[in-house]
Design brief:
This protein has 5 helices and 6 strands; from the N terminus they run βαβαββαβαβα. About 40% of the residues are buried. The protein is of the alpha/beta class. Strands 1, 2, 3, 4, 5 and 6 form a 6-stranded mixed sheet that branches. It has a single domain, classed as Rossmann fold (3-Layer(aba) Sandwich). Helix 1 crosses helix 5. The mean pLDDT is about 95.
């Protein structure tokens, strides 16, 4: 089974990347194949609402979207991480998710049967809004979201990159989420 982790942060080697990579590292190697994508350095335009994707199975805009989208479509599991910007998800990540949702909707394929969930990281506050924003994306795209012992959030950023590694409580909740996600994915695989 394939799990794709996406960091929606523009920062390379930052806290969001660290958390998504950490989550991916917790999947059992023999049972899961993982892949990481950072949106940092990629160019993804906002959705134009043009409906050019209707029936096409891809977006008609020319940027880095379609290559990321193909990996999302091929994955069995999705973990999507974002830094919190004024209580919201990073704009480039939302551009990716908006367009991915529309391509799936208008192609009729949907993301049904995939398993996944969000991770957010903030310096102080705003997690709830950004985390809810991502959860709503997972839910509207018919993706199964396992729970954890708390939300998959971490506090980091005041002291620079990799502060997230010091948030033991946040890492513990992410670990629990990955364990639950693994169980759900294995159970779904067994009934296919």
């Amino acid at each position: 089974m394939k799990v794709l982790g996406i960091s929606g942060s523009p920062r390379e080697n930052g806290n969001t990347e660290y958390l998504v990579r950490h989550a991916l590292s917790l999947f059992e190697p023999g049972s899961f194949e993982t892949e990481f994508i950072s949106l940092g350095g990629l160019f993804i335009k906002p959705c134009r609402g043009c409906y050019g994707c209707k029936g096409a199975g891809k977006c008609v805009q020319d940027d880095d979207f379609n290559s990321v989208y193909q990996k999302m479509a091929a994955a069995d599991g999705l973990i999507i991480g974002s830094p919190v910007y004024f209580s919201s998800v990073h704009p480039q990540l939302m551009a990716l998710l908006d367009r991915a949702g529309f391509v799936r909707l208008w192609s009729g394929a949907r993301f049904s049967g995939k398993v996944g969930g969000p991770i957010t990281v903030a310096r102080r506050a705003g997690h709830n809004m950004a985390f809810a924003q991502l959860l709503l994306w997972f839910f509207i795209n018919d993706i199964i979201v396992p729970g954890s012992s708390y939300w998959n959030v971490a506090v980091a950023g005041a002291g620079g990159a990799r502060d997230a590694a010091k948030d033991e409580e946040g890492l513990s909740h992410i670990g629990r989420f990955v364990a639950n996600m693994s169980r759900v994915m294995k159970a779904l695989q067994a009934v296919k």
